[in-house]
Q: What sequence folds into this?
């Protein structure tokens, strides 16, 4: 899973003590004492708003907002927290916290947070740096990489134009020169050169055609993709190198996280009794598991 960068405590503390808007006096300040670990930044009817509250709010922001300069972001977050506390005070003053509908919504939100926290706890325990490294060592390190093809291609807008290019190739025309002349692909200036690629790096129709060619062969019929019509020339085949750890660590981490979430759900479901009901309230009969060796019905 992708983790958003958190605003550092140092950056926010620096912003706190340098923002002109927070200055209360123009008199020279005495030598500063050591900053508390979690300073109070504001109070609302006596309820404190701490630095840790601002950091938590910052961590939950969209990535684009997290890139704002601390001196811009800091006052926005403090004011937002003040507004939220003021709203909370007003809602409690009107006893909304005792409204059954509001209580149900609050409980649902609390339950959802508790569920998410439990899953996150399981993922954090299982998807460690050591686990990611071990998975890489098991699946990638010291093993051959995927099959790869080195190819050129010519991309045009119509099938008729692609057929004409193939006819020119049959009469001995140079593939690279035709690519430079006709191809609408950005690589046309390089003679349509694509370099080495694995099958999953290209759209299926293109990859299937390229991998079916022998080195030195070109497609005798145009290949259509969402980009247009292609004529493909194979220049070689090889077993590619194994990907580096940095290339695949995020993919491994995501796979481990997905597997952990599934295992967590299977585990908690196995520990509870589930009874299904029909819309009319009658008990629903769960479909029986097929006997060993009996194929399941489609």
A:
């Amino acid at each position: 899973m992708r983790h958003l960068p958190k605003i550092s405590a140092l950056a926010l503390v620096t912003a706190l003590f340098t923002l002109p808007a927070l200055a209360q006096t123009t008199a020279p300040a005495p030598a500063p004492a050591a900053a508390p670990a979690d300073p109070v930044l504001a109070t609302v009817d006596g309820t404190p708003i701490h630095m840790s509250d601002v950091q938590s709010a910052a961590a939950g922001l969209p990535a684009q907002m997290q890139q704002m300069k601390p001196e811009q972001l800091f006052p926005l977050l403090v004011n937002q927290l003040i507004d939220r506390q003021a709203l909370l005070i007003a809602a409690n003053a009107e006893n909304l916290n005792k409204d059954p509908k509001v209580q149900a919504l609050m409980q649902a939100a609390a339950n959802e947070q508790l569920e998410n926290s439990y899953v996150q706890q399981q993922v954090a325990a299982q998807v460690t740096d050591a686990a990611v490294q071990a998975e890489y060592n098991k699946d990638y390190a010291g093993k051959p990489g995927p099959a790869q093809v080195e190819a050129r291609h010519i991309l045009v807008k119509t099938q008729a134009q692609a057929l004409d290019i193939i006819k020119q190739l049959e009469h001995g025309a140079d593939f690279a020169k035709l690519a430079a002349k006709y191809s609408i692909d950005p690589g046309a200036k390089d003679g349509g050169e694509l370099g080495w690629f694995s099958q999953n790096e290209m759209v299926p129709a293109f990859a299937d055609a390229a991998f079916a060619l022998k080195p030195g062969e070109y497609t005798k019929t145009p290949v259509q993709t969402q980009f247009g019509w292609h004529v493909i020339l194979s220049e070689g085949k090889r077993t590619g190198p194994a990907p580096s750890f940095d290339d695949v660590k995020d993919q491994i981490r995501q796979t481990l996280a997905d597997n952990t979430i599934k295992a967590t759900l299977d585990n908690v479901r196995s520990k509870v009794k589930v009874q299904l009901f029909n819309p009319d309230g009658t008990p629903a009969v769960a479909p029986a598991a097929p006997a060993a060796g009996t194929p399941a019905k489609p």
About this structure: The longest strand covers residues 228-239.
